[in-house]
Amino acid sequence: MLLVVDVGNSHTVLGLFEGEELRAHWRLVTSVHRTADEIRVFIGALLQQSGIDPRAVRGCCISSVVPPLNRCLDEVCRGMFGAAPVMVGPGIRTGIVLQVENPKEVGADRIANAVGAVATYPGPLILVDFGTATTFDAVSDRGEYRGGVIVPGIEASADALFERCAKLPRVEISRPPSVIGRDTVSNIRSGLTYGYADLVDGLIARMIQEMGGRPTVVATGGLAAIIAEIAQRIDHVDPLLTLRGLRLLFEKNQRVEE
């Protein structure tokens, strides 16, 4: 079995693959203060809860945008599973050509998304990942990563509104029944959902103008489903895209080592 780990700024998503089948997946809060021992306990408990013997895990692949956790994760994988993890970053084989000014700046999660999408959907592609930041990535029909866009995520925007405006409450992000709200909470929800959906549609439209053709637009990330219900230019919602990309990256790099 293969354990894949996607470490984001707010959440960490883990997946366990048996061949191409995703047997289980979990979502945890990311904390830079966790030690290797704590991470080991978390992973051990999740595997036990799913009835999986840790000895069945023979490999790990990790994408991380939180560098302070990388050493701990490496230590856990080596200690629990007896295998050095494949860390997504410079020097690994991806099959994706990074046509950007500085390839080392491209986030590991964005690379995993591109690898997973190229293997699943017809190109060219626009990938939208709704995380702490929302990222937009352009991938050509030849698997060339051409760059993208980064904007504050929906929850980050909501947090900024709550923290900077004394009289506005913190609200759950969900779609209100109409754009014009009749109270403060529905006003905020409308701005965060309908407003963000229009931002997404607008950026996608501009990217399409620059890319040409008709790219397939794929959304992933925690809030993708909510925005995709409103936005008009998202073709597919794929919450497991990053995990599948990590599995493929592990396989590409295992073949190189063999």
Structure, described:
The structure is a single chain. This protein is α/β, with parallel strands linked by helices and 258 residues long. It has 2 domains: 2-90, Nucleotidyltransferase, domain 5; 121-237, Nucleotidyltransferase, domain 5 (2-Layer Sandwich). Helices cover 38% and strands 24% of the residues. A hairpin with a 2-residue loop joins strand 7 and strand 8 (133-139). The longest helix is centred in the C-terminal third of the chain and has 28 residues, at 184-211.
Name some characteristics of this structure.
six-stranded mixed β-sheet; 7 helices; 258 residues; Nucleotidyltransferase, domain 5; alpha/beta
What are the SSEs and their pairings?
Layout (H helix, E strand, L loop, with lengths): L1 E6 L3 E8 L2 E9 L6 H14 L9 E6 L5 H12 L4 E2 L9 E2 L9 H11 L6 E6 L2 E7 L4 E9 L1 H11 L19 H28 L4 E6 L2 H5 L7 E2 L3 H17 L1
Parallel strand pairs: 1-4, 4-5, 6-9, 7-10, 10-11
Antiparallel strand pairs: 1-2, 2-3, 7-8, 8-9
Helix pairs in contact: 1-2, 3-7
What is the CATH-assigned architecture of the largest domain?
A: 2-Layer Sandwich
Cα separation of the termini: 18 Å
The tally of domains stands at 2
Biggest sheet: strands, sense, closure? 6 strands, mixed
As for the CATH topology of the largest domain, it is Nucleotidyltransferase, domain 5
Provide the gyration radius in Å: 19 Å
Strand content: 15-25%
- Oligomeric form of this entry? single chain
* Order of strands in the sheet with most strands: 6-9-8-7-10-11
Name the CATH class of the largest domain. Alpha Beta
CATH-defined superfamily of the largest domain: ATPase, nucleotide binding domain
Number of strands: 11
Approximate helicity band:
25-40%
Regions with pLDDT < 50 over 5+ consecutive residues? none
- Tally of helical segments: 7
| CA-based shape | globular
| Element-level helix/strand string | EEEHEHEEHEEEHHEHEH
